[in-house]
Write a structure and sequence with these properties.
Blueprint lengths: L1 H6 L2 E6 L10 H4 L4 H14 L6 H26 L3 E6 L5 H15 L4 E4 L14 H21 L7 E7 L1 H4 L5 H20 L3 E7 L10 H9 L7 H4 L10
Parallel strand pairs: 1-2, 3-4, 4-5
Helix pairs in contact: 3-4, 5-6, 6-8
Length: 245
């Protein structure tokens, strides 16, 4: 949204979720808070003769909330002047993601910059971590990054930004897989920046104060280490660094 308002660019937004419909049914749209929305879902299931479990209601609620967030974010970017093209893709699927990248070059003639922000967390202590979970966390960040590194036209690309985490540099309890994924991305960025014409950088974010992937427990761990949460206004700061106290 910050980029949309500042530069009014053409944005190709990639996500795993399908593009939601433009409008919700009236009864659903009237439910603007979690309590009323979940109550509606329960009533709908009962009316169909299928009383739902709490897990089913929660899953459907999260799907609706995600669809609303996608719709609101895309509409907000367009209202700020950006031209927005949403594509559904799993960045872990190298063939599908690579074809999407090539389709951007075919349709628009160029690709100036890329921001890679994909990532998941499945925090567990190493003794409790199973290999499949470890691979999922690494693959979400690294397979997509590998496709970008091999399919982007490096001579014309202006910038490639990887979103990484301070967990890659300092480690964090329960995040051995997440820390490893982020540090590998940071090393990849350093390597590519030495050989590519454009700028390649990894931004090692700290925990965000009011959004992002960090749970309250992880945020407390960072705070105990003296790492302050990043406010949205400071994280989007585009001017010179603010004066330190």
């Amino acid at each position: 949204t910050e980029l949309a308002g500042r530069f009014t660019p053409r944005l190709v937004i990639c996500g795993t979720s399908p593009m939601p419909p433009d409008q919700e049914p009236a009864e659903l749209a009237a439910c603007v808070d979690p309590k009323s929305l979940k109550a509606l879902l329960v009533r709908q299931h009962k009316a169909a003769g299928k009383p739902p479990s709490l897990a089913v209601v929660e899953r459907e609620y999260r799907q609706i909330r995600k669809a609303r967030e996608i719709r609101q974010n895309l509409d907000g970017m367009r209202q700020l002047g950006a031209k927005v093209d949403y594509r559904q893709v799993d960045v872990c699927d190298g063939d599908a993601f690579g074809e999407l990248i090539e389709s951007v070059y075919r349709e628009y003639g160029r690709l100036d910059g890329v921001i890679h922000g994909a990532g998941i967390v499945e925090d567990r202590l190493i003794v409790d971590k199973d290999p499949d979970s470890f691979d999922r966390v690494l693959d979400t960040k690294l397979l997509g990054a590998h496709t970008l590194a091999t399919r982007l036209h490096r001579d014309s690309l202006r910038f490639l930004v990887f979103f990484t985490s301070v967990a890659g540099r300092y480690g964090n309890r329960g995040q051995s897989d997440y820390g490893a994924a982020n540090e590998i991305l940071s090393k990849l960025a350093a390597r590519l920046d030495c050989t590519w014409k454009g700028r390649v950088v990894a931004i090692s974010w700290g925990p965000w104060d009011s959004s992002g992937m960090v749970s309250e427990e992880i945020k407390r761990q960072f705070t105990s280490l003296g790492i302050e949460p990043v406010s949205e206004s400071l994280g989007r700061w585009a001017g010179p660094p603010p004066a330190l106290p």
